[in-house]
């Protein structure tokens, strides 16, 4: 194992993963051909920020996986197994104590539940984001409860379009042209009159951990439909997720959002997400 380092390894440089209680080289790990995530896209996952060797929002990530396993009929998973995977994989794969762990749950053809974890470094993390809106009308990839499932083709295509455009995020719209979510984040929109709103989960968005924390800690956020025409007219557009925190989107489709600079709501959301619980 390499010596401790402050550098964050890339995914390509990390040759260890966690599979059902064992640390294995990624080149040797395998899932069964009848795995539900492989065959049907019927799996759930969560991406956990590791900071100073600790999993941020650990209890919320554990609950998310347990809730997803129940909704997708994947069987029972103990909280202790999820915490063990986080602890052991962080220690083995992220010796500098910084990075991201993705934990995935699925089941095989005999109904046995499987937990797999992979790690990666943080990569590039700009303080301000740019975004594109994606002409990929759809109803969102989530189940009614907003579970984060492995069936995410629309989100993956949107993310690919963002990368091709040199943008940090892609905003997905439904058939009516209303905002659903980002390819890797939930969105908050600050209006010119000072209000803050976010699309409801009923639009098809994933029930993001950062989104839930923001709604708990900041009073008065409205959940309502947001038309595409309102996005460029917004005072602020902010993306949130539990890995990156809050990131102001200062340009959308090549045009400035607000004054092209972060605003007060961006800072307030960032502060709300500073504390783990």
CATH topology of the largest domain: D-amino Acid Aminotransferase, Chain A, domain 2
Q: Per DSSP, what share of the residues sits in E-state strands of 2 or more residues?
A: 25-35%
Rounded to the nearest angstrom, the distance between the terminal CA atoms is: 32 Å
Which stretches are poorly predicted, pLDDT < 50 over at least 5 residues? Answer: 1-9
The largest β sheet comes out as: 9 strands, mixed
Q: Please identify, by name, the CATH architecture of the largest domain.
A: Alpha-Beta Barrel
Our Rg estimate from Cα atoms comes to 19 Å
Number of domains: 2
CATH class of the largest domain: Alpha Beta
According to DSSP, the number of beta strands is 15
Number of helices: 6
Shape, per Cα inertia axes: globular
Overall pLDDT: 91
What is the ordering of alpha helices and beta strands? EEHEEHHEEEHEEEEHEEEEH
Structural class: alpha+beta
Q: What is the CATH superfamily label of the largest domain?
A: D-amino Acid Aminotransferase, subunit A, domain 2
**In which range does the helix fraction lie?**
10-25%
């Amino acid at each position: 194992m390499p010596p401790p380092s402050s550098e964050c390894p890339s995914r390509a440089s990390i040759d260890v993963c966690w599979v059902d209680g064992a640390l294995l080289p990624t080149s040797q790990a395998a899932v069964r051909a009848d795995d539900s995530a492989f065959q049907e896209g019927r799996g759930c996952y969560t991406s956990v920020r590791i900071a100073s060797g600790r999993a941020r929002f650990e209890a919320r990530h554990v609950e998310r996986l347990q809730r997803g396993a129940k909704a997708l009929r994947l069987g029972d998973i103990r909280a202790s197994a999820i915490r063990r995977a986080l602890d052991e994989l962080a220690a083995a794969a992220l010796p500098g104590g910084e990075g991201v762990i993705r934990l995935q749950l699925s089941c095989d053809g005999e109904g046995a539940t499987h937990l797999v974890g992979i790690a990666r470094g943080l990569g590039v993390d700009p303080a301000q984001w740019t975004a594109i809106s994606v002409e990929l009308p759809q109803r969102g990839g989530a189940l009614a409860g907003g579970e984060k499932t492995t069936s995410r083709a629309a989100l993956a295509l949107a993310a690919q379009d963002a990368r091709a455009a040199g943008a940090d995020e892609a905003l997905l719209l439904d058939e009516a042209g209303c905002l659903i979510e980002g390819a890797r984040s939930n969105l908050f929109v600050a209006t010119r009159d000072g209000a803050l709103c976010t699309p409801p989960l009923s639009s098809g968005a994933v029930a993001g951990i950062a989104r839930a924390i923001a709604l708990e800690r900041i009073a008065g956020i409205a959940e309502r439909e947001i038309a595409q025409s309102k996005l460029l007219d917004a005072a602020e557009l902010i993306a949130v997720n539990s890995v990156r925190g809050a990131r102001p989107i200062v340009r959308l489709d090549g045009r400035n959002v607000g004054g092209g600079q972060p605003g007060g709501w961006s800072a307030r959301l960032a502060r709300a997400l500073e504390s783990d619980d």
